[in-house]
Amino acid sequence: MRGHDWINTLLPDELLIEIFRRLDSKSNRDASSLVCTRWLRLERLTRAAIRIGASGSPDLLIHLLAARFSNITTVHIDERLSVSIPAHLGRRRSSGNSSVKLHDVNDKHGSASDQSDLDSLCLSDSGLASLAEGFPKLEKLRLIWCSNVTSEGLSSLARKCTSLKSLDLQGCYVGDQGLAAIGQCCKQLEDLNLRFCEGTSCLSLELLALYSFQRFTDKGLCAIGNGCKKLKNLTLSDCYFLSDKGLEVIATGCKELTHLEVNGCHNIGTLGLESVGKSCQHLSELALLYCQRIGDAGLVQVGQGCKFLQALQLVDCSSIGDEAMCGIASGCRNLKKLHIRRCYEIGNKGIIAVGEKCKLLTDLSIRFCDRVGDRALIAIAEGCSLHYLNVSGCHLIGDAGVIAIARGCPQLCYLDVSVLQKLGDIAMAELGEHCPLLKEIVLSHCRQITDVGLAHLVKGCCTVLESCHMVYCSGVTSVGVATVVSSCPNIKKVLVEKWKVSQRTQRRVGSVISYLCMDL
């Protein structure tokens, strides 16, 4: 009806914003924003992305945009593109009769005296600080050839935009402080592009972790290897386009490397690891997870070249076997921690070599390695004084191996023997007699262990035992559960089926018992 603004009267802000979001084109949104000041204000709230080119004063432009659009999550600034600020906006910020200067970015004939004017064409640290202040919800930022941005501006961005997930610094000149700030503050960062950042000076970079950088290639890794000579700690996780070539450059360029983790980088293989073994003599920790292309020769070379290796982790490396472990044992006599999971080619021979030569080993985990049996544990017990042992799922291990550990490793504090179907009460009795420092034990799925075995176990370990997991132990009844909780004054956690806990036990120590969720 003429004279009545039914839409503005009846529709709340939230509904109008949703309508604006559903408009199918920018031109329609722009037209709608011209209807009235309310629609202009609400339409601006629907804008999530802006694209900015080189202008007479990019810092001013960002300041103006930040004041108008508060819900921006994506910003693209490309100084190869020429964009002018409307004259009335420039005059609004100008003093006297002067106005914002606009330059031809392709003019190559300017004098040296024009350098300060030419600098105004580029986004500065001040402009980047304004961007961070104005767009705190920022998740994706592209700064293309923003040559005046330095670490100072990048640090301001990092402190304000902690939700940043994607950062493209293609052609920018940033250094150690800026990238370090991004790493410290932007914990959700998933994508980082440093392409054409030849001026990037990260000479002091010591730690770099790249997780799921899907577009990161050997070119970027080679740049790191050639430029970051002080790099000590490197994690490469799910970077599918990296290969041996990139890791070779890291190895030859970053000779101070002490920690290396390669996780799910399926194109990195034996040759890349061989380069690490040849060049990274200070390597102390190595983790290889889901590396199907790395074979024995790679670890043999690590054994020959990395004499200071103290920790090795292998997970789902199907091509690594006994030859690799023998090589590690021969060369890495300082090994203290060895964790292996689902490496089915590793058997008794490799673990026996470790027991015979790695006398400093205190932390051993061999999970679901179905070729490792009692002989391996006997060798470990004879050569090493373990504090931590996990042999979950190694079905060839029985009483003989665990008894050897009990007698040879009196300092044992943690033991996981879950899913060992051949393990029985005799081993429990030996643990109780010889391992007085045992604090945590996992017995789940050990069907041969009974209440009798538990009684012998806690008889010797009762004063220090704090945790006992024993779900799906068919030989254990409510009597065994009661024995554990009543005999161990420091017990803090017992994991068991609920039906095995008597009401009396529940009343006495119900707070320390955790139940397996299951339908009965």
From TrEMBL:
PANTHER family with a match to the protein in the record: F-BOX_LRR-REPEAT PROTEIN 4 (PTHR13318:SF41), PARTNER OF PAIRED, ISOFORM B-RELATED (PTHR13318)
Listed SUPFAM superfamilies: F-box domain, RNI-like
Protein name according to UniProt: F-box/LRR-repeat protein 4 isoform C
Cellular component, GO annotation: SCF ubiquitin ligase complex
Basic and acidic residues bias: start-end ranges: 101-111
Region (Disordered): 91-116
InterPro entries: COI1_F-box, F-box-like_dom_sf, FBXL15_LRR, Leu-rich_rpt_Cys-con_subtyp, LRR_dom_sf
All residue ranges annotated as the COI1 F-box domain in the record: 11-48
Gene3D superfamilies in the cross-refs: 1.20.1280.50, Ribonuclease Inhibitor (3.80.10.10)
Domain F-box/LRR-repeat protein 15-like leucin rich repeat: 120-194, 201-385, 386-495
Source organism (scientific name): Glycine soja
Gene Ontology biological process: SCF-dependent proteasomal ubiquitin-dependent protein catabolic process
